[in-house]
Amino acid sequence: MTTIQTFTWSDRYLLGHQSIDDTHREFVEHVRTLQEARDTDIPEALEAFIRHAEAHFTQENAWLNAPDFPGGGECHIEEHEKVLSSAYDVREVVAQGRYDVARAYAQALVGWFPGHADYMDSALATWLVKRSHNGRPLVFRRMEAV
Ligand SMILES: [Fe+2]
Ligand SMILES: [Fe+2]
Question: Nearest 5°: phi and psi at 22?
Fold first, then answer.
C-alpha cells in the first residue's frame, strides 16, 4: 500500500507577494480536499480544484505575458497548461468511476507544486514585488521604514 502524503501549507512556500501567496494557500487546500475526499465527493472536489487552477493560472499567465516581463515565461505557462490538461483528462476518467486516478493526480500535484513555486512562481513574485516598489527590492523599503 502506498503511503499518502497529505498536503499541508508550510511557510517555506511563501514568496513575498500577497496575492500569489494567498492563491497558493488555496491551491494547497484544494489539493488536500481532493486527497481526503470520499469517492462520492471526488467529482465535486476535482471540479473545485479545476475552477481554482483555471483562475490561478490565468492570473499568473497574464502577468507572464506583460510586455515588460523580462522573458522566460513560456516554460512557466507551459507547465500550467500541462497541469490543467491533465486535470481535464482526470475529470473524464473520474466520470467513469475511476476515483483512484483523481487520488493519484492529487498526489502528483503534491510533488509538483514545491518545485514549480520555487523555480517559476518565485521569479514571477520577485518581479511583481520589484515592479510595485519602483524597481527597489522590498528589503530596502523595510530598512528605510525602520
Ligand atoms: Fe502559482
Ligand atoms: Fe505558476
Answer: -65, -45
Q: Is residue 6 part of a domain?
A: no
Residue 129 counted as domain residue: yes
Calculate how far, in angstroms, residue 145's C-alpha sits from the geometric centre of ligand 2.
Answer: 31
132 Cα to the center of ligand 1, angstroms: 18
CA of 55 to the centre of ligand 1 (A): 10
The CATH number for 115's domain is 1.20.120.50
The closest ligand to the CA of 79 turns out to be 2
Predicted confidence (pLDDT) at residue 4 exceeds the cutoff of 90: no
The string of pLDDT tens digits covering residues 48-67 is: 999 999 999 999 999 999 99
pTM across the whole model: 0.88
**CA-angle at 85, arms to 80 and 88, nearest 5°:** 130
